[in-house]
């Protein structure tokens, strides 16, 4: 009885131990099975040549605790933080620009340039004033009327106003630019002559000569600036004829014609709104109406006139002086300092005056025996490339001084 009971108890203990072992090994088996499932089957190609190294994102997925630690914001510091002041904003590239010199005070003896004409003369004169702003000996006076010309003397009479302007300014050069408003009918006596007729052209030429005659009374150079091209083809064609008249009449009177036509047309001779400025850069020269001038166009007009004005007023600028013996500073010889005080200076030798060095002949000119074993200094220099030693104390004397001389110094 007792034996049967013990046997049953031992069987029960064995069953419990087996069950407990199975419970413990279940997670291990499940994990192993899961790991086996995560492995991919290899193909025949991979079995023969080996499988490439692959990375399974599931094997390297971060744990949940690690994700929480990564998302956790850093602890806040309740202590006050002093932020450094923001640095000043400075440009990365500093552009060094040379400022244009401002206008200078004109001299009392400054020579004046009188500019007369219509709106184009006013634009050109404005730029001419800026051009000569830094020249104290040249002054520019502009007397222009935008709508004036040679045709409507009832509106503005240049023949009566020009003598008064000359009297007020006493110019050294007179510049005339007008004609852009003259394509209209002209009153000749009691007759209104239509533009372009023979009588109109004859009277217009007479008025050109009359204006030039008034300007020449001052006995100064007179310049007539030609008209530029305009956007209107009819205006451009008529102004070509006007320029021919201006050139022929001013040159016949001994003046000069300033041709500006090529500066405002292209290679084919057609009007251009944008072209090269005085610096050779592309710039807008004309206004949108095809008549007026921009600032670049004004400077270009003044550039043409400036060359003629400077040629006539050459020498008017006081900063151009002649350097001669009268205004050169005195040449002084300063005492030698340091080691230079022990050197013996030799004056330069002039090739045209050998007496300055105490001799009267050049190297190798001393007479020598006709037959001599010792070569002359000239032969040594020309044939062997050797030169006699420099005289003692000369700057090219590189011989070491004797010990007695060094001790004495």
Automatic annotation (TrEMBL):
InterPro entries reported in the protein's UniProt record: DUF459, SGNH_hydro_sf
Signal peptide range in chain numbering: none
CDD domains hit by this protein: SGNH_hydrolase_peri2
Stretches for region Disordered: 56-97
Any one Gene Ontology molecular-function term assigned to this protein's record: hydrolase activity, acting on ester bonds
Pfam family, one: DUF459
Protein name stated in the entry: SGNH hydrolase-type esterase domain-containing protein
Source species: Agrobacterium bohemicum
